[in-house]
Every structure is written in C-alpha cells, then in structure tokens.
Specification:
mainly alpha; 7 helices; 2 strands
Length: 149
C-alpha cells in the first residue's frame, strides 16, 4: 500500500501543529518546515479544517491550530479520511475498471481485509504518540528562534 502525497502532507501538518500547540502557525512556515508547496498545503489544510482536525483563523494574525487535542486524533482515522477517494487497486474503482476477473477474483477481498488491518493498526496510534517525548522531531519542527542547542 502506498500513502498518497496528500495524506503524507496532512500528517506533517498535524505533527507541526501538535509540536507548536502553544501558538498559531502559518501555512508558509509549515510549508517551509515540512517541505511542501504552499498550494498543495492549502488544499490539505482546507480538507483537515473541514474534517475538524484543524481550526483555521483568517486575517493578519491568523494561522492554524489543532481542532482537537493531539491525544484525540487517531492516525488511522486521518488516513481513512484522506485516502478515501483513492482506490486501492483498479478493481476498487467505480469507473475505469477494466479487469475481466472482478466478479470472480478473491484478491479484492484479500486486499480490502489487508487495508482494514493496516488502518486498524494506525487507529491505535494517536498524534500525541507521534510527537510526545520525541525530541528529535521537536528539534526539526520547533520554530527557528526556539530550536534547542
């Protein structure tokens, strides 16, 4: 299974906000620190906001913050929400499915079961678990003026 760029950026944004939970962060700083284009990041932030994972504040002093506590954000839930539109294999697609085996193939069931096990494992991981006591991550994601020596 391959994680889409959208999901990868979503997790980075959430981790950045969790690592800087004492302040609003800007899309520009997240893009710079997380190596993502601001345009792509804006789309992901919009979706995360609609899903309730982020709160966005407009205006001159605006920015982003977590919409819930990091302990209440399950990574499996985020993955499901972000990956939902992407079919795992051609046979999962409603359109453009040209596989002649689809009505008799058991691989589709096996793939669906495997994906559910993957997501179930990630359901056990919280955003807090990814960030809490992770000094190496905090050194990367902390604002420049707050980097530890």
């Amino acid at each position: 299974m391959r994680v889409t760029k959208r999901t990868n950026i979503a997790i980075r944004v959430l981790m950045y906000c969790a690592a800087n939970n004492d302040r609003l962060v800007t899309k520009a700083e997240v893009a710079q620190r997380c190596n993502a284009s601001e345009n792509h990041l804006a789309q992901v932030v919009n979706q995360l906001g609609q899903l309730g994972y982020l709160k966005t504040h407009r205006g001159r002093n605006g920015g982003l913050e977590l919409g819930r506590t990091a302990a209440n954000i399950r990574i499996g839930e985020v993955f499901r929400a972000m990956e939902a539109p992407v079919p795992l294999a051609e046979c999962f697609a409603d359109v453009d499915n040209t596989c002649p085996l689809v009505d008799a193939c058991r691989l589709r069931i096996a793939l669906a079961d495997a994906a559910e096990v993957f997501y179930a494992h990630l359901d056990e991981v919280t955003l807090d678990a990814l960030v809490c006591d992770n000094d190496a991550l905090m050194d990367i994601l902390a604002p420049v003026e707050c980097n530890r020596a």
